[in-house]
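Entry 12.
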Amino acid sequence: MPTDFDKYGDNWKNKPITLNQAELLHDLTCELISKMTRGQASHMIGKFLKKNSRNNNPMQSFDSETLEEGK
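Predicted 3D structure (C-alpha cells):
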C-alpha cells in the first residue's frame, strides 16, 4: 500500500489541504466576501470563470445579464 511519502515525497506543500486549513479558509473568505461591493464581487466572479473556463465550469453557461439579475 503506497504511503504519503511515496505519493508526495518529503514535500508537505504538495499534500492535500487539511480539514483545519479548509475550515479556516472558509471562515476567512466568508468574512472577506461579506464586505465586498457588487463591483468587487463581479470582478472576482469574472476572474474565477475565466481562469476555470477550461474545466467545464457550470457557471460559465450563465450570461452577464443572468448573473446581474441574481444580485
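Annotation: The two ends are 49 Å apart (CA to CA). The mean pLDDT is 81.
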